[in-house]
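Lecture notes, unit on binding sites. The following record was shown on slide 14. It pairs a sequence with adenosine-5'-triphosphate.
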Amino acid sequence: MNQQTAQIDAHSAPNHERSPGQPVNHNEDANHALSIRVRDLNLWYGNNQALKNINIDIYQKNVTALIGPSGCGKSTFLRCLNRMNDLIRSVRVQGLVEMDGRDVNDAKMDEVALRRRVGMVFQKPNPFPKSIYENIAYAPRMHDLVSRKAEQDELVEQALRDAGLWNEVKDKLQEPGTSLSGGQQQRLCIARAIAVKPDVILMDEPTSALDPISTATIEDLMDKLKKQFTIITVTHNMQQAARVADYTAFFHLGEMIEYNDTRMMFSNPHTKKAEDYITGRYG
Ligand SMILES: Nc1ncnc2c1ncn2[C@@H]1O[C@H](COP(=O)(O)OP(=O)(O)OP(=O)(O)O)[C@@H](O)[C@H]1O
Ligand SMILES: [Mg+2]
């Protein structure tokens, strides 16, 4: 028996025939309409290969968590989904990233439209140096989603309500976004991301700079937002992945080692590497 077989035998058997990209075990509570299909995705920064043959199906209106040690390619992978890696000169990408059946790397794909459909929230809250109101209203105006002032006001209020921030800021909408606390700023950035009505929201360690109460608020928010949006989040916090994610993907040295129903990933991982990482044996 080779080492790989031995590893798999020691762990759970998959409960269905899988094709590349599918999770090892299905989560019965999750939605399974396909949002993003990634096939044989490889990415190099110069000569350094950062993503190796990634295959994953990401489902709509779920939370999918990406976990794995520092430098394993999680942020790089997220950036492939809205072509933010295009902004880095040394990058070369091979393989397919399909969103709602369309190849995002197709020359005909409108990058501005793509980034409207795939929003992003970063580790460090980064409000624009503008008012709370303008932080939300600016992008929808640029994308012609609102014309009249009343429409804009309504959209700003709705985005702030959906991000759980309205009650805290409704009386000071003209104050600078940067005057808010870190946790409030992160919710402002979430409000800004959802204001353009994206399909997918990418979150790269969205709570790692926040205190435990703000973190809990954002976790609750993710649970609510997944009713409207597909969320893909990166976290180094295993408890957070276990709490918020329907599916979890474990990355290691540029490879996606395991993609599984979150409960199975944390209770009975399919691969030894995922088990070692989750139980803190390395990473
Ligand atoms: N702009 C870049 N130019 C060159 N190499 C890069 C660049 N960004 C990332 N890399 C390299 O690609 C690999 C994956 O990095 P990435 O930032 O995707 O990891 P990560 O899993 O997000 O790590 P972390 O958990 O620390 O955020 C690393 O080897 C990193 O050094
Ligand atoms: Mg990262």
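Take-home: The chain has one domain: 3-278.
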